[in-house]
Amino acid sequence: MSCSDHASRAGDPPGAHREWPRAREAAERLGARLAPAPRDLPLGRALGGVLGADVTALVGLPAFDASAMDGYAVAGPGPWRLVGTQLAGAPSAREALAPGQAVEIATGARVPKGTESVLPYERAALDDGVVGGEIERGRHVRWAGEETEPGATVLTRGSRVTPAVLGLAAGLGHDTLPVLLPQVSVLVTGDELTTSGLPGEGRVRDAIGPLVPGFLGWAGAELHGVRHLGDDRAALAAAVTDGGADVVVVCGSSSKGPADHLRAVLAQVGAETVVDGVACRPGHPQVLAHRGGTAFVGLPGNPGAALVAILTLLVPLVSAMAGRPDPARSPGAVVLEGEVAPHPRDTRLLPVRLIGDRARPVGHDRPGSLRGAALADAYAVVPPRWDGAPVELLLLP
Ligand SMILES: Nc1nc2c(c(=O)[nH]1)N[C@H]1C(S)=C(S)[C@@H](COP(=O)(O)OP(=O)(O)OC[C@H]3O[C@@H](n4cnc5c(N)ncnc54)[C@H](O)[C@@H]3O)O[C@H]1N2
Ligand code: MOO
């Protein structure tokens, strides 16, 4: 990463917020730099992932000399005396053929040593245990390793795991694939939060813990765990350095109140700040930092603002770490309907419904509310001093 990514040296005046598009770019760049160690995932879980290491052939393809046709495996010039039958997967009927011998053979069955070719039924005549016909030397046998040699590199790091890749990997003897799957732990702070039932007087039900995992899976990352902490600096400092995760998300604590310890804790643990505050509404108190290979993302406590910060920093960061495109990114721009007032300095992010090629605000978009987001297909990106031109969208999962 260039020095200019770091908030402390970026030329952002003290207290100034990073322009919203620049904040997203910084998150994506940091993610590309912090690619996590690949994790070996069972084939059934690897679909859609990106390989974090090359994949080699554990066996050759084919793994053994096998018949490519139903017919007769033959040795030497014809005619051939039939000496057995070889089915696929069955024990060897005959270890080797001598010249002038044949075994009846099924497609995919191992051919005996000494086999020179396979004569398909259609080209063979069988008479009283003797096979006749014209052969072409070497034909209709799939020779061991002719498609892929054992040990060959068949897929390179950065390839996407598609259904065909899963089939190929299985054919080459793999039970797992090394996939980039960033591990993300979520620390939800706030003495006022509860996690089940009605919140009670002066308490608030945690709305961020339940919404983060869906964004993680969508962006190609995995939830390492969610922990609820009070507004306690020592507990937060211990939790952010707990290890095991590639990304630590801290919800709440991002602002400047007496219980907002995130900045102090990041400084205490020696994390380097990349973004401190983003010029967007809602969601300006967002933080992006890293220490070694671990990234830290601070989300505002207001749930609607937290969701915007997830789309601004967390999704670009982890999708880049996973080697994937940002799933929120949408090509092209759309006409934004309705009365929308731009902000003079900040980018506004508005939950919208998509109707054809137009976007219509759904309302209910206060920072503390997720109601608008729950009704929306996407967020419209309204730049500062917007002049009514078509706007970019951020898609929602
Ligand atoms: N002096 C300033 N005060 C505030 C500023 C500012 O710039 N200067 N920014 C305001 C904005 S904007 C936001 S957003 C909040 C961000 O504050 P924190 O990230 O420190 O979050 P808290 O203060 O803990 O909580 C804010 C609000 O959200 C509720 N909350 C917190 N966590 C959750 C959760 N997991 N689920 C549901 N609701 C949650 C919390 O109860 C508060 O009502 O700071 C403003 N202040
Ligand atoms: O992040 Mo705050 O309003 O922008 O909720």
Query: Stretches where pLDDT falls below 50 for ≥5 residues?
Result: none
Category by helix and strand content: alpha/beta
CATH class of the largest domain: Alpha Beta
Major sheet, described briefly? 7 strands, mixed
Q: How many domains make up the coordinates? A: 4
Distinct small molecules bound, one entry per kind: ligand LQZAQKY5, molybdate ion
Instruction: Report the CATH topology name of the largest domain.
Output: Molybdenum Cofactor Biosythetic Enzyme, Chain A
Fraction of residues in helix:
10-25%
Per CATH, the architecture of the largest domain is: 3-Layer(aba) Sandwich
Number of strands: 27
Strand percentage lies at 25-35%
Question: What key phrases describe this protein's structure?
Answer:
397 residues, Molybdenum Cofactor Biosythetic Enzyme, Chain A, Molybdopterin biosynthesis moeA protein, domain 3, 4 domains, 7-stranded mixed β-sheet, 19% helix, elongated, binds ligand LQZAQKY5, binds molybdate ion
